[in-house]
Amino acid sequence: MVKLWIDNQEVNVEKGTTILNAAASVGIKIPTLCFLKDLNEIGACRVCIVEIKGKDALVAACNTAVEEGMEIYTNSKRVMNARRTNVGLILSQHDYRCATCVRSGNCSLQKLANDLDILNVPFKEEYEEQEWDMDFPLIRDAKKCIKCMRCVQVCDKIQGMKVWDIINTGKRTNVGLREGMSIEDINCALCGQCITHCPVGALRERDDLNELVYAIADKKKVVVAQIAPAVRAAWGERFGLKREDATVKRLVAALRRTGIDYVFDTNFTADLTIMEEANEFIERLKNKDKYKFPMFTSCCPGWVRFVKYEYPELLPNLSTAKSPQQMFGAIAKTYYAQQLGVEPEEIYCLSIMPCTAKKYESQMACMDVTGTGPDVDSVITTREVGRLIRAEHIQLEHLKEEEFDEPLGCGSGAAVIFGATGGVMEAALRSAYYFLTGENPAPDAFKVVRGQDGVREAEVEIAGTKVRAAVVSGLGNTRRLIERIKKGEAEYDFVEVMACPGGCAGGGGQPIHDNLELAKERGDVLYELDAENEIRFSHENPAVQELYRSFLEKPLSHKSHELLHTDHSL
Ligand code: HC1
Ligand code: SF4
């Protein structure tokens, strides 16, 4: 142990502890900006500087280890002046139009400037512009970049993609796309993890709210919304709502206030996905010589993009089932349009997702089953739905909960856990067991696949058949797993992959909390919702059963193939 003093308080910590952590252990908060736990501890922003008695230079607390007998001051006059100067310098290089910034009110730099009472800074009048395709789902605004390197590190160390790099030298040093590539051509999976780890507004998703507002105002359009599983565990965070108040039923009510005509649940088509995917898996197991193994899930578009760029030879291993988002669009514009007695093009299908890659998935040319345009017209993130609610001045505290519309609003507990890593696998195993044995397993029989470890493996036995399953989240973990499979070091029958660490709960479209990863907490909410649901199995969803009876006939039928499956190499 090391004994030292911080702001005259005695502190005892393990050898090797940083000053930042030593201070935190006794409740002293040293402000940070570029710091990202375990990923970016480079001390570049010089915001966490502290004074050590007897030393001339101020040091960065995030990457300086404590030493025996140190006397440290975190808020001395010298420290405060230097910290103000450093933040002022960063601000002077940053586009300061906060009022029109997507991160206003949730920006680490803005908060620091306010906390430090910085009221006057010689802002630059002109900034170096970087060209960007504003139609692309991921937007970068170079004028707002503070060169903290967080995006570079997250994309490289967590996602293993190395999309961002340091470009130029000297005064023109900046962050940009690797090797001068364009965002359309580079291998970006669109996971959005660089967005959720950016402390300012330099990275964001394309804003699709404008188009939605026009669609709602268009009297000729029937606006139909779907809410993704993981959105319900996170949407209230932006409003500071308690978990028990931020229910999905309150979100349904809020969406109706915006003028949306019907509010449905992606859980409905998550159940439909399980019907198709579990049967596809059984079909592959029964005809092992005809198919490549393992079969991979295909509902995460960040993962599908990753396969296309990095391992195209694995495309035949992907389940041909479309994602629940896309199945919803296909069913809304066929089955539901028929029920309403309207043409497919009269329906405007909105999707509310915790994900940025879903914006890209909805625009793929193959996602148009009616030949009248995209099955899903627009995708907004959990953050954008928060902005929509604020823009409409909806007072959530006065809003009563409302039920989803029927019939596409009915979802099982198996569907809601899609939003947590391992959930798709667990839901598929529950139904595969039923399809193979004719009986339901205990609902939690396959909970062995739950957890937050980046890679989890399980071997389960169903009707005498051993199924070797793996669950992986985060693209860096995924690459390592694939390399092991390719080298013959690991062998599986069925693998679930989610591009974002923790699955959609930790998705790149979720609310941003600086230096806080909430995937586990949100995932726990989804598992609670599963346990509370009267229906725990996708095959017991009555609305899905009715859809097969009256429209699709059976899983993997000709019609199901036409509407619900795709060739991922397209
Ligand atoms: Fe997901 Fe999915 S679980 S991909 O994480 O399969 O985005 O929540 O909606 O489509 O259902 C995301 C979440 C989501 C799809 C489902
Ligand atoms: Fe990297 Fe994901 Fe950001 Fe693309 S979206 S640059 S893959 S972190």
From TrEMBL:
Keyword Iron-sulfur in annotation: yes
InterPro entries, A to Z: 2Fe-2S_ferredoxin-like_sf, 2Fe-2S_ferredoxin-type, 4Fe4S_Fe-S-bd, 4Fe4S_Fe_S_CS, Cytosolic_Fe-S_CAF, Fe_hydrogenase, Fe_hydrogenase_lsu_C, Fe_hydrogenase_ssu
Residue span, 4Fe-4S His(Cys)3-ligated-type domain: 78-117
Key words, A-Z: 4Fe-4S, Iron, Iron-sulfur, Metal-binding
Domain spans labelled 2Fe-2S ferredoxin-type: 1-78
Keyword Disulfide bond recorded: no
Domain 4Fe-4S ferredoxin-type: 136-166, 179-208
Superkingdom to which the source organism belongs: Bacteria
Family annotation (PANTHER family): NITRATE, FORMATE, IRON DEHYDROGENASE
Name this protein carries in UniProt: NADH-dependent [FeFe] hydrogenase, group A6
The species this protein was found in: Maccoyibacter intestinihominis
Lineage of source species: Bacteria, Bacillati, Bacillota, Clostridia, Lachnospirales
